[in-house]
Amino acid sequence: MLLKNLIYGDRMELDVSGTVCPIPVLKTKKALDSIDDGEELTVIGNYKPALENIARFVEEHGHTVVSTEETEKGFKIVIKK
Predict the structure, then answer these.
(1) Which one, of 52, 79, 75, lies nearest residue 63 by Cα?
(2) Which mean pLDDT values do the consecutive 10-residue runs of the chain (81 residues) have?
(3) Is 10 designated active site?
(4) Which listed residue (3, 13, 17, 21) is catalytic?
(5) Are residues 16 and 24 in contact, defined by beta-carbon separation less than 8 angstroms?
(6) What's 16's domain CATH number?
């Protein structure tokens, strides 16, 4: 299982590929806890059901889903804290 956190200025990228729920949601929560309000987190993964679960978690906790994209290999979701 490979988990990467890459930081680019005011946004972080989290790769949760190779994991299944609830791990992508838990890793997203941990990453959101580590960034400041107004910053963006991009989560990429290959377990497509996690996209809906992450989006639901984000909205339930008062953050904003900026964009979602289903890709050939999985998904990408951009979140604003």
Answers:
(1) 79
(2) 53 92 97 92 96 98 97 95 95
(3) no
(4) 21
(5) yes
(6) 3.30.110.40
Q: Which of 38, 33, 30, 51 is nearest to 11 (CA)?
A: 38
61 backbone dihedrals φ, ψ, rounded to 5°:
-105, 15
pTM of the model: 0.87
* DSSP tally for the chain: helices H, then strands E: 2, 5
Range of the domain at 63: 4-80
Q: What is each CA distance from 30 to 5, 20, 41, 58, 71, in whole angstroms?
A: 11, 16, 11, 12, 24
| Cis before 22 (ω within 30) | yes
**Pick from 75, 33, 52, 20: nearest CA to 5:** 33
Number of domains in the chain: 1
What the block records as the tokens of 41 is 């987190």
